[in-house]
Amino acid sequence: MDDVRMKIKRKSETDEWLVVVTVNGKRHEGRTYYTDDRDDARCTMQAMENEGRAQGERVNGLTIVGAAAKMRDAFETKEVK
Q: How would DSSP label each residue in 24-35?
């Protein structure tokens, strides 16, 4: 079973939001999602997590809900070089 991890990053020089996907510790560019909308990135990451689980992948996304939502920016917003 593949270990799939996802996180949302912001690429400031292009003002893009990315859902970055790593599979077994290696970035998988073919599965990385680019958008100019932060909410779109969040919703897409959730859909990607659900699809991965349905296909039997072990998915560890960084979706943060509840009380931790106040801290979400610190976890989701990281600059991509």
A: TTEE-GGG-EEE
